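During the second year of the project, the team shifted from modelling isolated chains to modelling whole assemblies. The rationale, set out in the original proposal, was that interfaces cannot be judged from single-chain predictions alone. As a representative example for this report, we include one of the complexes processed in the last quarter. Its constituent sequences, exactly as entered into the pipeline, are reproduced here:
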Amino acid sequence: MRHIISVLMENEAGALSRVVGLFSQRGYNIESLTVAPTEDATLSRLTLTTIGDDHKIEQITKNLNKLIDVVKLVDLTEGQHIERELMLIKLKAVGSQRAEIKRCVDIFRAQIIDVTSSVYTVQVTGTSDKLDAFVQAVGDAVILEVVRTGVSGIARGDKVLRL
Amino acid sequence: MLSGGEMLIRSLQEEGVDLIFGYPGGAALHIYDALFQQDKITHILVRHEQCAAHAADGYTRATGKVGTVLVTSGPGATNAITGIATAFTDSIPMVVISGQVPAEKIGEDAFQETDMVGISRPIVKHSFMVKHASEIPAIIKKAYYIANTGRPGPVVVDVPKSTVNPAEKFPYDPPKKVKLRSYTPISKGHTGQIKKAVEMLLKAKRPVIYSGGGVVLGNASEQLTELAHKLNFPVTNTLMGLGAFPGNDKQFIGMLGMHGTFEANTAMHHSDLILAIGARFDDRVTNTPGKFCPNAKIIHIDIDPASISKTIAADVPIVGAVDSVLAEMLELLKESKQKPDEKALASWWKQINEWRERHGIYTASRYNTEGDMIMPQDAIKALYEVTNGDAVVCSDVGQHQMFAAQYYLFNRPRQWVNSGGLGTMGFGLPAAMGVACAIRDKDIVVVTGEGSIQMCIQELSTLRQYGLPVKIVCLNNQALGMVKQWQDMVYDSRYSQIHYEDSLPDFCKLMEAYGHEGVEIYTKDELKPKLAEAMAKKDKTVFINIHVDPSEHVYPMQVAPDGSMRDMWLSKTERT
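Output from the structure prediction step:
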């Protein structure tokens, strides 16, 4: 099963490599990873998605917790949560394609954020599934470049992950 | 005002460090100069950095005090890696200070530059890179705190030369206490879980206490012994746990696992309740996990939550320091009106004693005693007698290690020093060197083979320099014995790369060259007298070259793959 694990860690050199190293060292896989400092500059928030059965996920969270740089973590998929990913996608847009892509962008509630006579650059946000669907909808033929941020997530309601 | 180098030495002194094992070099020169200008810390100059780490490790295992290693950058640091990994796998606390090229040169492929923090990352509990001299006191304090609390382990402190420059002085301002918001080691176990465990213990009909290295590390052997006696449960120790429960106590049923005793492995298999204490269900213990102890409920006490239910699911997990959890269990037992099931235990003991009689290695010699050659088992038995079972035994890795584990009955914790998890050949001699630095009133013995000893043999020179007496008992079988055993059993005796083709050195002459002594033992008659004679040379390092039967295997040996705990080879021809 796919899990989204959100980690608060010390914003220090080497902390990220310890987290990533743990995954390769113990043979866990990382589907996506995103990290940035929080409002408290001494802390970074790292969100990663991984796939594994309950036993593996338990080992992952236990071993992450053992890292001295990890302050707190939560498996967001254990409760109600919101997940978002952002994609920038550059599409070949000439002739009749221009209108078609525009329609697709509207359907997905995406935005065209840069335009040239032959290219649209589109920003899409949503769950990873929605981003996948957009990629499929526009089709390989027009795609020039895809950049995805990886999943970011937060718990619904009152629950917060902070010190 | 102190320089970074002076702060480093001062901080070590304040941590109570009085001994460092190390090797100088370019990036560590400032630190070594600061070390020169003080007299509280003794430095032992090893001959190879791997051995600095092993020596610090041996020192720690025998005394419980955190060992300290000091090496230079690049090859100095990478040479220490095997030693750090050895300590990490066995959860031995250690602080390794490595010199590093000046901060402004990092990343420029400078002379003797290597990314020590990166290279050591998977084999340390934590690591630090010093960015400024003023951070040094706090980092050193944190390093020792992290190394020696919770589940212990090695900590690396990488020190760029520019941060210990003697020309730059800063106020020395050490923190009084360590504060780490992300690290709070657990001590007390969950009382509810402990209560539940005690209830299960009192109801058990075929219980086994399976205790590991955590009991030694957690200084809980007294509590373990009291608990076992109070309950009258059989106790088996892991390779790492030997000595935590007295080896010649009648409730001790021997080591368990791949080369465990018949009675220990069989009792585990038929048990209805396993109390695992500071043990981690290693693959050399469990055999096939899916067939492990099919009828047993498992209570697992460990300080590391990640060790619980990692390979074998625990029914009652208890995360906590073993001494505290066992003490709480003892309290609950004292208060409880219920007593252990005496009738069930009596028939359980009857069964275990029958197993002991049938195939146990302590009720009869289960190997060929008729031949002319010395059997390795007899060599260990003779060592046990000659040393009155009181020596600190440091082992290398291989058949001799298993024979020592089986036949030298350790009666106290920290008496048995070996690389259990990583299985590092070459560990024994430098580890004994570390032990010898701290312990003067006991015999210190290295049990080794002619293969292992050659991996770190240059430390004979260090032993000479510092007058450290150790007795090296070499079970010389002319081959890499454990590999040979596997090649016999699994590869139809196709001996791939296990012989030295008459290239073994004359160990006695080699010893003389280093200023030590050597003795050859060939016959059964001379085994004990010559061993005793060598052991009597208290102030000398002596190499005791015992020529043993080269065809002997270690038994019992669990059947793999797909075997359960009770599936064992008992000899070359006999199987359970």
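The helical segments of chain A are 15-25, 54-66, 97-107, 128-138. The longest helix of chain A spans residues 54-66.
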